[in-house]
Specification:
Layout: E1 3-7, H1 17-27, H2 35-43, H3 57-71, H4 79-94, H5 100-112, E2 115-123, H6 124-133, E3 138-147, E4 150-156, H7 163-174, E5 184-188, H8 194-199, E6 202-206, H9 210-219, E7 222-224
Parallel strand pairs: 1-2, 1-5, 2-3, 5-6, 6-7
Antiparallel strand pairs: 3-4
């Protein structure tokens, strides 16, 4: 059995799942439009990595603070209530944005009997159910705080982004021993997933930037363009 790892945002879907979720909450009246300002500050943050390519702790703190603020509308709500919201959100805003080529690639891996893991920096309250809808075996995202089956507005664990994404994957893999995979496939659109793609046996850059395309050529990684 092989393992296929897919980044979610801008790889399997043509948008950012957390941004879509925030807009959905606002549209439904569950969050204030002011929350969009937090998102704009997050995406405009000038630096995610330092000159050596290491993930900046300041960015991790910035993102975690941003996500904590966007979790506020769910604070105190039951997991069941939020799960019902998420199901409606997935049908309306996620499934129509899945690349046809992504569906084909997911089906190809399922046909081979591979295990499929979807990974994202979005909260696991989104990533895990999205993974189920896409026919994946598991999903990894930022862990959201739960107390007595209710969201508490906190975040937990390591931010699954850049090197932290690889570390989170390794933790997930170690918990699955003695299961072993013959090969690991990885798919991503972002240069920040370089550690993940270097870890994989077979790496594919999807809709990569010019810089990422050059790196893929140097590394001998596959390159694909997926469109809707």
């Amino acid at each position: 059995m092989d393992l296929a790892i897919f980044e979610l945002d801008h790889t399997l879907i043509c948008d950012d799942s957390h941004n879509l979720w925030l807009h959905w909450l606002i549209l439904q009246g569950y969050a204030s439009p002011d929350e969009l300002n937090h998102y704009r500050l997050y995406v405009s943050h000038p630096q995610k990595t330092d000159v050596s390519g290491h993930f900046c702790p300041q960015y991790a703190a910035h993102y975690t603070h941003y996500l904590s603020q966007t979790l506020a509308p769910m604070n105190g709500l039951s997991c069941t209530t939020v799960a019902n919201w998420v199901q409606r959100f997935i049908h309306r805003d996620i499934m129509p944005r899945v690349y046809p080529q992504a569906r084909e690639r997911l089906a190809w891996h399922r046909g081979r009997g591979d295990e499929i893991l979807i990974i994202s920096a979005s909260g696991e309250h989104l990533v895990i159910p999205i993974a189920r809808h896409l026919g994946a075996n598991a999903g990894l995202g930022l862990q959201t705080g739960i107390s007595n089956q209710r969201f508490n507005g906190a975040t937990e664990g390591q931010l699954p982004f850049h090197q932290g994404r690889l570390e989170r994957l390794k933790t997930w893999l170690s918990a699955r021993r003695p299961l072993r995979y013959k090969q690991v496939f990885a798919y991503s659109h972002t240069l920040y997933d370089q550690p993940l793609l270097e870890f994989a046996d077979i790496a594919t850059v999807v809709n990569g930037s010019e810089t990422f395309q050059r790196l893929a050529a140097e590394q001998g990684w596959y390159r694909q363009e997926w469109v809707r």
